[in-house]
Design a protein that fits this description.
homodimer; 439 residues; alpha/beta; Amidase signature (AS) enzymes; 11 strands; 38% helix
């Protein structure tokens, strides 16, 4: 199999057995990028030479028996709102075209320390917020969005440019592109991965997330990031109890999403899992509104330095945010924060006894056109609740584009959710164990 | 008056009237630093030449009628866990001696855009957390600590090295040095000042704060930082209703703190304010424990990159943190976060009708010796509650060292708290309107 089609875990096994070098893997990724990038437009910056030099170093080390960590020799991409030392970090903003940070962001440093190789920077909605959209296209159909704001990250992993990529999520910026691009993704519990060196938007919500082409790869990033391991044994599907949740936003669904969720739920039930419809409490209907209030209220500070420094040079959408033109009052912001905090507590009790919650990955297939990155309503509520989320591909929608589902866990039980996802992915994902090659 | 003794507001008035230049002010600050630094040891880095060059630019601009913002020509210091472009930022850690960031931290950028001049970097407890202590001494008595972790920031402003300085607070790291060094300080509401470019420790708690020698100066930094203005008219002391709160930690007090608080309360009552003892609800007794759990639980991620990259090169105290050696469980962390969130809601209702809460600035005078930066128990609870806090000097303790009090406000009502502080400071601070010159 061409090595760019391997998952990170598969590539590591090949390297362990001497059948693959990191240099070969990086070259294969670069070839795939060269072939596909004119259409997919995932990358804002590629550092071919340094990546190959690092790969050669990792290969020498491996030959000498020195393995740096769980991702030794694996290339990865980084959303361009996250710093990588000595690479430009533009935030896809005209205000930052010349910015070259000297440090890796914390999440990048963790992967680099684990032996992984930063390949380049991936296109993003400006500042992972609003303003300029990414130029990236959906790898499965170029006239459709890959989602956003981690547009390039979802597209690059979905298009086999690179086995792993970082994104960030404040609303639905990691999970929606995963659904649209047919990839796996993980948004861990809020605060368990250090966000230093990533552009912030709303500190109560901002979370580093990552893309991969399988649960095992998601776990490798979690391990490299120092997330605690589970102390409970993993269980087979047949022993899992899954809550099926349609969210308060079911009326926003478009064709295919309902069917994808139903297929996933039926598959799990057929595999012996206990699947029970268990909706969120009625008091959770305001989650999306609260998320919006917090994003706007906290986002004011995120773009204040840009507003004060650049004035009208700042994109009008971001300026409006920093100027609080929507008039979020202190009282409204406090109410939203307190409501969200209360909902976090209630969530834990409401789903006690379940191993995970299963819900839509997005409202439907990827939207046509590149003038919007899509609707985050199916993702934002979980971000607000701070719970870990894993996106799993769940087949195609009516037009043949991917649709995913989300598995939602409990705060700080990220490793447990990875175990659940590993058990259910073979049942949910029709491409499990196979490689979907766009183009 | 020697210009280093001027507050920022006074210096601005002098500059406006043509009696002072920014270059003169910076030179006066540097002279004071040269005279006192061998004893006070506040600074890790000074950029004399660039500061003077910037001051000359600001003077030229002022002469041409161009005022950049509310701090045009005012020098300030920055705690060395906060990035200033092109200055070393070491976090007082041997792991970062060579680090020179290319960007200003957001808070520094805001002040620079407002015309202020970064003078240098101030000593700090390692990573504003634990590990190496600052070498800084208390300007009022060199064998005593200035407090920490913003040790150099409190000492520099207290010793008239610079009118303004940034610190950071996760427990009591801004407010305790203010009390020990006899300065004013402000910790705004959590999240209203962008923390990008400052080392994080516990994201639920970390807050940028600042030191000054008067409330007017605190307000200038708030304005430069884009904090919303108050829409309520400021009121005189006689119209204020102040809650006197002794906290659940009164048994930790040392000589002088109780007397300082009583003097402040009596002064306010004599000035016509309504001062009523109104303690926190009994359910708040766990605030300090919850803060400790959150700091340890969230702090794990803060130092994970250092642990993975440097291993035993990381200070043992920080390593223990990243390795969660105190065994904070997911359940304990969740419980602490939910408890704190609930307490934030309760606080608002419990003190409704009051304009501010008045409490101790610290448990007493600055501790003797430099092997500890003191006890944060009187500050941490307010940090955890996310409320804005202003520290006001309140006279001296039994050995003649300063002791402060804290005024505590309500979330997102930072400007309103500044109004209260401006009204009460002349009553509380015996040095109000005078200059206390250590040494």
């Amino acid at each position: 199999m061409p090595s760019e089609r391997l998952t990170a875990a598969q590539a590591l096994a090949e390297m362990d057995s001497g059948r693959l070098t990191s240099v070969d893997l990086v070259l294969a990724c670069l070839d795939r990028i060269d072939a596909r990038e004119p259409r997919v437009k995932a990358w804002l910056h590629l550092d071919r030479e340094r990546a190959l030099a690092l790969a050669a170093e990792r290969d020498l080390e491996r030959a000498a028996g020195k393995i740096r960590g769980p991702l030794h020799g694996i290339p990865f991409g980084t959303k361009d709102v996250i710093d990588v030392a000595d690479m430009p970090c533009t935030h896809n903003s005209p205000l930052h075209q010349d910015r070259v940070p000297v440090d890796d962001a914390a999440c990048v440093q963790l992967l680099r320390t684990a032996g992984a190789i930063p390949l380049g920077k991936l296109d993003t909605v400006e500042f992972a917020a609003m303003g300029r959209l990414a130029r990236s296209t959906n790898p499965h159909r170029a006239m459709h969005t890959p989602g956003g704001s981690s547009s390039g990250s979802g597209a690059a992993v979905g298009d086999l440019h690179v086995p792993l990529a970082f994104g960030t999520q404040t609303g639905g910026s990691v999970m929606r592109p995963a659904s649209y691009c047919g990839t796996y993704a993980m948004k861990p519990t809020w605060s368990v991965v250090n966000r230093e060196g990533a552009k912030m938007f709303a500190p109560s919500l901002d979370t580093i997330g990552w893309y991969a082409r399988g649960v095992e790869d998601l776990r490798l990033v979690a391990e490299a990031s120092g997330l605690p391991a589970s102390d409970r044994p993993a269980r087979p599907v047949s022993e899992l109890r899954i809550a099926l949740c349609h969210t308060p936003y079911r009326d926003t669904l478009r064709p295919g999403a309902e069917a994808a969720l139903r297929r996933a739920a039926d598959g799990l039930a057929n595999a012996g899992a206990t699947v029970e419809v268990h909706e969120l409490p009625p008091t959770f209907d305001g989650l999306d509104t609260a998320k919006d209030t917090i994003m706007r209220g906290e986002g004011r500070a995120a773009f204040m330095p840009h507003l004060k420094t650049h004035g009208d040079g700042l994109h009008a959408d971001l300026r409006s945010h920093a100027e609080n033109r929507t008039g979020i009052s202190p009282l409204a912001l406090k109410a939203a924060l307190d409501y969200a905090a209360h909902a976090r507590t209630v969530f834990e009790g409401h789903y006690r006894g379940f191993d995970a919650v299963l819900s839509y990955g997005a409202v439907g297939e990827a939207d046509e056109g590149l003038s919007s990155s899509g609707n985050s309503v199916m993702n934002s509520l979980w971000t607000l609740l701070h719970v870990p989320v894993i996106g799993v591909p769940a087949g195609d929608g009516p037009t043949g584009l991917p649709i995913g589902v989300q598995l939602i866990g409990f705060r700080f039980a990220d490793a447990e959710l990875l175990d659940v996802a590993a058990a259910v992915a073979p049942v949910i994902d029709p491409w499990h164990g196979k490689v979907r090659v766009p183009g």
